[in-house]
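In this supplementary section we document a worked example of the pipeline. Step one takes a protein sequence of length 251 as its only input; no multiple sequence alignment statistics are reported here. Step two produces a three-dimensional model, which step three serialises into C-alpha cells for compact storage. The input and output of this example are shown verbatim.
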Amino acid sequence: MGTAIERFDEKARRTFDSIGRTEVYKGELLRHPVYTRVLHWMVALFFFLALFSGFGIYLPWLFRWFTPVFGGGPLSRQMHPWFGVGFVFFFFLQVLNWLAPMAWTTADTKWMRGIGKIVGGKEKLDPPDTGFFNAGQKVQFWEIVGGCLAYLITGIILWAGARSFGATAVAISYVLHDLSALVMLGGIFIHIYLSTIGEPGTFQAMTRGAVSEAWAWTFHPAWYKKVTGRDPRQAYEKARQQQSGTAPKQS
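The serialised model returned by step three reads:
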C-alpha cells in the first residue's frame, strides 16, 4: 500500500510540476512543490466555503449576512455538503502526500517535552533532530484528520436525514458536526498565527514554495542538514558572526 501511495504521489508531483514552476533563489531551499501547495490552498478554500455556508445555515440569527454570498439560504443549504465533500477529497490527497513525514518519532516526543522553551523563545533554534515537520505541526495535522473523520461521518448522517439514520442520530450529529468544525477552526487560527507572526518566513513556503536557509536551520534543523549536508548550528553561528562583524576573514 505504501508503495502504491508513493507512486501515486510521485506521479501527481510530476504532473503539477510540469504545469507550474517553483523558483528557488540563492540562499533558499525548496520546501513545498506545486502539487503540495495546490492541495494546501484547495483544502483551505473548501474548508472556509463549508464553514461560512454552515454558519449561515446553523446560526442564521448571527450569520445571515453570509447566505447572500452563496445565493441565499436554500442554495447555501444545497451547496454546503458539496463544499464539505470538496474539503474531504482534497484533505484526503493531502494525507497521502504527507503520510510519511507526519509519522510520530522519538524526536517529536522530545520536542513536546521542551515545548515551553521553544514557545517562550528561550531556544534560538529548534532541537537539532527536528525534521521536515515538528511535533506541533504533526499534532495539528492529526487533529484535523480526526476532525475530518467526525466532520465526514456526521455530515453524511445530516445529509441523509432522519429517515435514514433516525432523529436521535441526526440530533447528535448536529452537535458533533459543529464541534468538529469549531475545533478545526481553532487549529486553523493557530496555524495562521504560526505561519505569519509566530514563525516569520513560513508563509512563503506555501506561496512561492521556497524558504530561506536561515528559516530552515532555525525551525527544522534536521531537515536542513538532510538537504544541504551542512551542520545547522554551525550555519547559524556563522551567520550570527557575520551579522555582528566577528566572522573570521577568509585568507
